[in-house]
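Support reply, case 0932

Customer input (verbatim):
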Amino acid sequence: MDACRWRFAGRVPYAEALALQKDLVRRRIAGEIPDTLLFVDHPPVITLGRMAKREHLLGARPGVEIVETDRGGDITFHGPGQVVGYPIVDLNGLKRDLKWYLERLEE
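Our regenerated output:
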């Protein structure tokens, strides 16, 4: 990986951050931008991933948005003060293996 830029977008609702990510992915595929690490801080939101089980959602709170997403995982809470990083990278220069990449991030 030659260069990776980062961007802190501030507090951004989940749907807006997802739209921004999709635009960055489109631009990365087109070669318009380098690998990018997008940082955001979400208003209170619970995301339900593809593996989500509704019985794991123990209760909703007023002011907490619930969003179903096509991403993996179960149920995740994101809230103010929790900075979330979304990597937009071309894995061809590393290893075309998303599981491998995510494990390296976790390390």
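We compared this against your earlier run and they match. Two observations from our side: Strands lie at 4-11, 35-41, 45-48, 65-68, 75-78, 83-88. The helical segments are 14-29, 98-106. Please reopen the case if you see a mismatch on your end.
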